[in-house]
Structure formats: C-alpha cells, structure tokens
Amino acid sequence: MSVSNPAHAAHFFLLIFTIASFKLSYCKTIGCPATENQALLSFKQSLEDPIDLLSSWNNSEADCCKWEGVFCNNLTGHVDELHLKSYNPFLGLIGKMSPSLLKLKHLRYLDLSQNKFKGKIPSFIGSLASLEYLNLSGAGFHGTIPRSIGNLSSLRTLSLQDNYKSLNIDSLEWLSRLSRLEHLDLSYLDLSKANNLKQVINKLPSLVELHLKYCGLHSISQGLYDVNNSSLAILQLSGNEFRSFVVLRWIFNLRSLVFLDLSHNSFKGPIPRFSNTTKLQHIDLSFNDLNSTIPSWLYSFKDLEFLSLRSNSLHDSISNDIANLSSLNTLDLSSNALSGKIPREISRLCKMQFLDLSQNKLLGEISDTFGNNMSSCFLGSLKFLRLVDNQLSGHMNDQLGELKNLQFLDLSRNSLSGPIPNNLGKLSSLSDLRLEYNKLTGNLPESVGQLFNLEMLFITDNMLQGVVTETHFSNLTKLSYFSASENHLTLKVNPDWIPPFKLKSIQLRSWNLGVIPPWLETQRKSLKLLDLSSTGISGLVPSWFWDILALSLTHNQLRGEIPDITTVSGNDPRFVCVGSNKFSGSLPRVAHTVIDLELSNNSFSGGLSHFLCDTTSETNALEILNLGGNNLTGELPDCWMRWPSLKFVNIGNNSISGSIPNSIGFLANLQSLNLYSNKFSGQIPFSMHNCTRLMKIDISDNEFVGNIPARIGTSLLNLRILILRSNKLSGKISSDICHLNSLQIFDLSDNDFFGIIPRCVHNFTAMATKIILAEYETEKVGYSYSAYSFLQTLLESASISTKGTEHRYDTILPLVTNIDLSRNNLSGDIPKELTSLVELRSLNLSGNHLTGSIPDGIGEMKQLESLDLSRNFLRGEIPAGMAVLSSLNYLNLSYNYLTGRIPQSTQIMSLNASGFIGNQLCGPPLTSHCSDEDEAPTPIDKGADGDGESKVDWFYVFLSLGYAVGLTVVCTTLIIKKSWRETYFELVEDMWDKVCVYTRIRWTKIAARCGRSS
C-alpha cells in the first residue's frame, strides 16, 4: 500500500499512532499515583484490622491497584472503587475513618458496610465529589448523619441501613439535593420525627428503589398521603406498624411498581385493591392482621410471580377459585390459620413454580391433592413445594416422583405415615428433601442414592427401621447435610468404605453404631457438625473430633481425657457436648470462641481455677457451661468477670466448697445458676442482685447461712425458679420476695426460717395464671448454631419434692408450679391469700408451727395435685371445699389437731389413710366411724337467690336469751352472797391445778410422738 499525498500520509501515521497508543494503554498496566497509594496506606494505619481485610496493602506491592478491594480506572490508573465490606458477622475494620481518603479525587464507589468504625460519620465524606455509590450500612458509626452528604450531587446509590439503631437524622432536607439518586436505603433509622419525608421523596425524580424498613413511620403516616413519584419500582415499608392502607393510598397509583413489601405491620381489615399497579410481580403482606379471603382482583395480575400473605389472621379455607390464577408463578400462604383440605385445583396450575402452604391447619390425606390427579404441566413446572407444619396424613403417592423439575420438597412436621416412595429416586433435580417429624415407617429406600443433586436430606424423628448400606449413598456426591436422628436404623458399611460426599453436618443420634465409623475420617476437612449421641459407641475419641465446630457425643461409653479446645478457623463459634460418658482427668481449657460446653455426668476431677482463670482472652463467648455430676473439688475462683456472656451455669452435684465469689455479679446475662449438692458455705453474695436476667437459682443441698438478701426480691424480677432447699438459712421471709410475680417454683424447705408466711403471696401471679408450654420452632435450614444451642437449654431441669417424694422435671419444667416451705420454724396462720394461687400444683407447709385452721378457700385451688400440711398445730375441721379438688392425688394432714368428719368425695376416699392419722378425725379413708353428731362438713347451701345466707332459727334465738338471763342471775347471787363467792373461787382454783397437770402430761406425750415420727 502506498501513500502519495503527504497530507494523507500524515493523517495515516496519526491514525496508526492513536491506535497504537490505545493498544498500549490496554496492554500496559498503569499503576495508581503515588499520592493515592500513600492515601490508602494512611487510611489503613488509622484502623485495626483483626480479619486481615487490608493485609495486601503494603509497600512490598507499590501498585495499589493490585491490592484487595481496590479497583482502578484502566485508562488513568486512578483509584475508582473501594470494596471494603466485612463479611465476618462478628469482626471488621475498627477505628476512625481517616480524611486521607479525600486525596482519592476520582473515587466513584465506596463500600464500608458491616465494619466496626468508631465515632460519627465524618462530615468530610461530603467532599468526595465524584461519588456515585456510598454504602455505610452497619458500618458501626453512631450519632447524627452529617448533612454534608447532600453535597454528593452525583450520588446514585445511598445505603445507610442501621441494624444497631445507632444513627439518627435531625432533618431530611439534605436528601432532596441528591437529584440523581436511584437507590435509597434508610432502613432501621428512626424517622418518626421526619415530617418532610413526602416532600423529599417527591424531589427525587430518578428514585427507583426505596427501602424504609422499621423506621417508625406510623407516627408520621398522615404526612405520606400524597407522595408523587412515578419512577418507583421497588418499595419496602415493612415493620412500620401502619394500621390502615388509607395513609398509603399513593401506593395504589404507582404505575411502575414491581416489588412491594408491606409485611410486619398492623394492617387490619380486608386486602385493598391495588388498582393501577398492574406491573406488580411481588406482593408481601405477611405478618399483619388481615382478616379477609384472598380477593379476586389478584387474578388480574398476569405477571405476578410472588404472592405472600404469611402470618395474617386469615381463617378461611383455600378457595377453589385459586385455579383462576392461571399465570401464578409463586403462591405463599404460609403462617396463617388456613384450615380444611388443599384444593386439588392447585396441582393443576401450569405455571406454578413456588408453592408454600406451611404452618397452617390444613388437613386431609396428602394424596388427595398431590396424588394421581396432578396435571402434566404442574408436574413439569413445580420447583419448590413446602407443606411443613400442618395436619396432613396418609401415604405419599408415587406420582411425587414425577415432579421432574422439583428442587425443594419439605413435608416435615405432619402426620404422614407409610413408607417413603421408591419413586422419589427419580427426582433428579432435587437438592433438598425434608421429611422429618412424621410417622414414616419401613426402610429407607435405596433409590435415595440416585438423587445425584441432593445436598440436604432430613428424615429425623420418624419410625424408620432396617439397615443402611453404601447403596443408599452411591451417587450422593453433592450431599452436605444429613440428619436422620431418632429412628431405628443400623449402619452397615465396609470398614474401608470411602463415601462419595463431603458432609458438613451428620446427625445420627439414636442409631445403632457400636463403634465410631472409620469412614468419618474422610469427612475430616469438611465436617462442621457431628452428632453421635446415644449410639452405643465406646473407647477413645479420635483426636481430630475436637476440631469439629459442633460436636455432640452424649450418652455413650467414651473414655479418656479431653485436650484443650482451641480455635479452629477464624473466630467461628464452637459447641462441645460430651456429657454422660466416662471422660476423666482435669477440665480442658477452652478457646474464647466456645459457646456451649457440656461436660456433665463424667468423672472430671480437680479444681476450676485453671479452667476459669488461666485463659488467654480477657473475655470469652461461652454461654452454656454444664459441669454438673463430676468429681470437681476446691473453691469457686473469683474470675467470673472473664465470662460475661454466660447464660446457663451448672456446677451442681460436685464437691465444691467455700463461698460464692463476688465476681458472680459480673454475669449480667446469666439466666440459670445451678450450684446444688455441693459443700458451699457462707452467705448468698449481695452482688448477685446485678444478675438481673436470672430466671432460675438452685443452690440447694449446701451449707449457706444468713438471710435471703432483700435485693433478690427487688432486682431479680425475671426469677421463675428459686430453690434454696436444705441449707442453714435463717431469719424471716421478707415481704420483698413477693415482688417476684413471675415465680413458679419457690422452695425454702429444710432451713431455719421463722416468723409468719408473708400475706402478700397472692402477688405470685404466675401461680395464678394458666401456663401454656411454648412450642419452639427451629428451622433446620442447613445448620443453625442458634438451633443447636436451643437443644442444650432443654437440659434445664429441677428436683422438686412433691407427692411425698422427690421428682426431677425437665421438658415440662415450665408447667410446674410449687411452693415448699416445709421443715422450718414458721408460725402463725396459713394466709388465706395462698388460696388465690389457683394454678398452684403442689403446696408443702409441713413440719412447722402453723396454727389456726385450714383456709376455707382452699377448694378454689382446683389444680392442686399435692398438699402437705402435716406436723403442724392446725385445728378445726377440714374445709368442705376440699372435696371438690378433683386433681388432688396426694394429701397429708397427719399429726395436727383437726377434728370432725373427713369431707366425703370419691377423690378423698381413694387417698392413703396415713395422711389423716394423728388427728381426731373420722370417716373414710380412716377406719374409725363417725357418731351421728359428727356431721360431715358440707359447703354452704346457697338458695335460689344465691346469697348463701341461712334462714333465722328462732329456737336458737330464744335459747341464747335464756342462757344470758341465767348467767346474769348466777353472777348477781355471787356478788351478794360472800360465802357462796368464796366456795366458788376455791372450786375454780382446784380445777385449774388439775388442768395444768393434765396439760403438761399431754404435751410431753405429743413431743415424744413427734420425735418418733420424725
């Protein structure tokens, strides 16, 4: 090619030079300017970096464009973006933000979210004029958001979400200057006083996404009437306690709206019609108080892909009209009160991909809907089916195996029975299969081994039985979570078997193993959770087990010593539960990341000092510490300030001595303290009143002395269980104890308390209110640390003396109500206020010096199962109302001064006669018969008017008048006749001497009898 014209030649060479320059600019890496390099190093030096997020930022690599999180412009080399978000939920960059960032003149993107910065958001951030993206969500800043952010005129995305509620806004005026803003997230900020919110939104013409979750907007809802923003496509207003849709009428006219989240509010009444929002694909109205059926206008949304009405107050059944939603892609009606059967029409919706009807009251046989009547297009489209926590029954149908694109199947927590269909092995797309907590029987089908995409398999708590072999896992190369506890399965694989999977979680509790499976060694690098509890394994534990993050080996025959439990990787929480084995030696030291340590019922020996005090960390994360039932000795060391996260402490049933150290008061999060059956002495420390979250104190069977600290009654207002039994405590029971209105178990028995029973006991309102045992739900999605910790709280138990013997309660402990003041020196009457505790199940006041009569109102205590008033000085008759105590199955009134006939009822006649001896009683269940004059006490017979008053008996009126007249005549005669008066007084004096002698003999016999019986 020739170029004859010089001008053309010049242009040609200029073009070649330009192209070459562009090629060089792309081929050659342009380093960042030295000023920007130094600015980033200064930024790093002002911070602590415990997770090494900035570890690559150093002088050994002079080009900052190669540092982690730093992105530069390919043409200029200037720092363009900083991606410094922390992905560690516990740690991040710490310190104050350096102004050196101002030297990054070309910075467009800045993400500092989820870190631990200190102080306020610096005002100089408003000088980063080129910023288009700013994310400070959860970055640790506090205080007022600077108005200078309003200077960032190029900003398109602003996220200031604050889950910690540390930030506040004094005005929103500065937001209105961000005219290019497209994405705004102020979630969890308190906007309750921002009355100009409407004006601000209207001045953001480009706004496409608006996230205002949990911002307290209900108090300014009147100011949201007329928002006018035509560009909004994504709107989140959840958790703002809106009560009426009227205040949000502007939403109904957002023609561009695609995504709408109004969940977790307080909307009442019917679901309104979103008239002009025809582009909606996602509607979430869950967790409200809506009370209508599903409205027909929803059928008009042909593009609707997600409908969620979870946790509303919808009480209707699912309408068959649901079939009109022919374009419906996603249907979520979970967490309602829907009842009846699932309409068959649902299984004929051809575009259905996501179906969630979980946590309702749906019933009927599962095959009625998901049986042979499913349409072919439904079988081909469904990807997600969740029916968990309903009342479905019957057998699973083989046609379930024809849902060829199904990826998630959850039928757990129902009443399904019969075998698991072999056809499930045909679900080649299935990644998650959950069938736990049903009544499934038979063998685990070998076809499960063909689910080559399966990642999670949960079949816990069924009635499966038989042998599981290698075939069941043959093609499960992707399996990560396997939960099959509480079945009757036996594992039989070759000793040299190498599984095709790398599991993160294995739960085989209650399987028949016998030995620790050798193939577990192949899972060593991936395994995070291992549960082999109650599997009959014995011997020594492989050393690598102690590196597993969550380990449960309880109720086996394992032995040996436990090494120190150290941090494995990063700062991941650790759980070690090996109780009820044969481990010995001294207690292991634990890393600061250990959350749950359960070493109870083993043979550990030695003291606690090295365990509690010789730690490398100033504070530790331990929440559950269970060392009960070992051979531990020595005193309790005074270094509890290093364990501020502790919630559950059990050192019971050891041989620990000495007093409780004052540092126990540093455990501000403590909820349960168990020091029973040791050799503790001294007084209950005053510092314990700082543990204001305490719900249980059990220090029984020790040698504590002194009074009950008054501050317990005024500071520990969450206390539900207080057991001080079998100590040497003394003094009066202070009325301050009555402030504990949450108290359900109150046991001061076998001490030296004296004085009266406080009259204010009616303030124990938890004993007068019906208790419902809460049903805790733990989602088993993969592996949840919190769910695992919850299993340990189920170990909470208490020993209660009731029905004449000692019982230990655990799982139903929240239902137990008990007052035991027996074997003290209490005196006075039984306060009638006790009878207002109508939900009390056990009352024991035996072995005191109580006098007076049994309160008449005791018949109102309908829940009483055990009543012991024996060995007191009670007099009078047994109240007739006791005959109506239908729950009473233990009654001991022996060795008092009760008289008369025992009230007659089938319940009382079935009781043991020994509970009535040592009195002057007659009638069943005693063999002594009553004379005719021993009337059986009966409740007052109320007349038709119900006033309970008896008619006037004039015979007794005149008899009383005659007695009064006769007594007057005798007294007058004695006054007038001196000789008669002297004779009378000599007679009275002689009789008094005889009574004194008789009384002394009688009390001697009573004392002797009490001594023998005790």
Automatic annotation (TrEMBL):
Residues annotated as domain Disease resistance R13L4/SHOC-2-like LRR: 101-309
Protein's cellular compartments: Cell membrane
Membrane-spanning segments: 954-976
Location, primary (coarse class): membrane
Keywords, alphabetical: Cell membrane, Glycoprotein, Leucine-rich repeat, Membrane, Phosphoprotein, Repeat, Signal, Transmembrane, Transmembrane helix
GO BP of this protein: anatomical structure morphogenesis; defense response; plant organ development; response to other organism; signal transduction
Cellular component, GO, one term: plasma membrane
One Pfam family linked to the record: LRR_1
SUPFAM superfamilies, sorted: L domain-like (SSF52058), RNI-like (SSF52047)
Signal recorded as keyword: yes
Membrane topology: Single-pass type I membrane protein
Signal peptide: 1-27
Domain of life: Eukaryota
Domain Leucine-rich repeat-containing N-terminal plant-type: residue ranges: 35-73
Keyword Glycoprotein part of the UniProt annotation: yes
PANTHER family in the record: LRR RECEPTOR-LIKE KINASE (PTHR48063), LRR RECEPTOR-LIKE SERINE_THREONINE-PROTEIN KINASE FLS2 (PTHR48063:SF98)
Recorded family membership: Belongs to the RLP family.
Entry protein name: Leucine-rich repeat-containing N-terminal plant-type domain-containing protein
Organism: Buddleja alternifolia
